[in-house]
Q: What sequence folds into this?
């Protein structure tokens, strides 16, 4: 049965033992203006077997600075990291992540940034939640989605889509659309207003997996059915990113596993969702296959950027993906040292976040068009 846990304002706790944070990865970013952003993720310890730590960076006055975030929940559980963030303004950010102990399963946590400090937000917990996404259409008006697992997801466990609505400073569970398949996931959500949200993911029965799109009208979630399916033979397909620049206009991105190529759905001016894959032009002359198209951010219906990856016969590289005219995305290689790009958010400038290589460090890229440059970040500290 879902539990409701009160949130308490919580200053950054003392580090675990004497281990230092020596690296990390950024999983999400939100930029309410072109000159102010909040990026979140998790830090890694130098000691083996130690849990991760929440990691947050803020861009203001042209500089990135690390912002302390609570390490322990009011119940004493260790916060492992933050996986999603949405900021309707520079003094109003909401982030979701996970916390756990050696004896308890992973649980969802929510935090709020008021312009100076992070504090916990009460959240109704449905059980073990692994993937989450949050989108805020205005101050204190946020919606979130995720995936709840029963049992081991790799050994016969079931997955269920879950959703929350933030009202009066609390995240409360709301029912998702009626299930058609025994397993379903929701991986990303985009809200234009508090009564116009779109969430994407996938639904699966046995070896059959197909994209799932749900919409929120302020009162209930409804699945988009029938949804145009990828061509026969593409194999399992799942959507992992969505961005809606205006009510009724959205772009959703993902991957078809069978053909290992991008999956793109478009909706314009409240019209039907249309399947538009493959619609990614790749760099270079070698034969390439897109492996992942995970995050997308749109300023307008035909002005979007994404975070994804591609591979050639000789090597694997990460790429940024930029929207071009005529309904196509064009991939460009990320700067040298980019190991992984997990998320992107665009205003007049686009900001990508992820992880660098060969040493795991948080990574931020910024720029316009398809040629971003790497930002300077301070070394993570406990």
A:
């Amino acid at each position: 049965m879902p539990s409701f846990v009160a949130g308490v304002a919580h200053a950054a706790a003392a580090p675990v033992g004497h281990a230092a944070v020596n690296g990390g990865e950024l999983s999400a970013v939100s930029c309410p203006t072109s000159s102010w952003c909040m990026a979140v993720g998790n830090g890694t310890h130098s000691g083996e077997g130690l849990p991760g730590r929440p990691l947050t960076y803020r861009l203001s006055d042209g500089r990135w600075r690390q912002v302390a975030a609570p390490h322990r929940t009011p119940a004493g559980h260790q916060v492992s990291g933050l996986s999603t963030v949405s900021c309707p303004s520079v003094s109003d950010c909401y982030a979701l992540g996970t916390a756990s102990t050696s004896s308890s399963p992973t649980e969802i946590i929510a935090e709020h940034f008021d312009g100076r400090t992070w504090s916990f937000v009460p959240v109704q917990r449905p059980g073990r939640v692994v993937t989450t996404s949050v989108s805020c259409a205005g101050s204190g008006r946020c919606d979130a989605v995720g995936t709840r697992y029963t049992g081991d997801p790799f050994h016969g466990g079931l997955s269920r889509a879950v959703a929350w609505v933030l009202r009066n400073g609390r995240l409360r569970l709301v029912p998702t659309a009626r299930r058609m398949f025994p397993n379903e996931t929701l991986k990303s959500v985009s809200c234009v207003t508090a009564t116009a949200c779109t969430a994407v993911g996938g639904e699966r029965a046995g070896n059959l997996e197909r994209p799932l799109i749900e919409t929120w009208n302020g009162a209930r979630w409804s699945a988009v059915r029938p949804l145009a399916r990828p061509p026969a033979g593409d194999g399992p397909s799942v959507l992992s990113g969505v961005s809606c620049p205006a009510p009724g206009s959205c772009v959703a991105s993902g991957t078809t596993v069978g053909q290992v190529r991008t999956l793109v759905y478009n909706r314009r001016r409240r019209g039907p969702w249309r399947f538009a894959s493959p619609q990614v032009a790749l760099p270079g002359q070698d034969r390439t296959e897109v492996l992942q198209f995970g995050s997308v951010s749109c300023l307008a219906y035909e002005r979007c950027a994404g975070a994804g990856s591609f591979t050639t016969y000789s090597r694997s590289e990460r790429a940024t993906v930029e929207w071009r005219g005529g309904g196509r995305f064009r991939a460009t290689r990320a700067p040298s040292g980019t190991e992984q790009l997990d998320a992107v958010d665009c205003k007049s400038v686009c900001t990508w976040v992820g992880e660098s290589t060969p040493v795991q460090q948080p990574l931020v890229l910024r720029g316009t068009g398809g040629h971003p440059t790497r930002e300077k970040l301070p070394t993570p500290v406990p």
Notes: The first strand starts at residue 3 and ends at 5. Confidence is low (pLDDT under 50) at residues 3-19. The two ends are 35 Å apart (CA to CA). DSSP finds no helices and 31 strands in the chain.
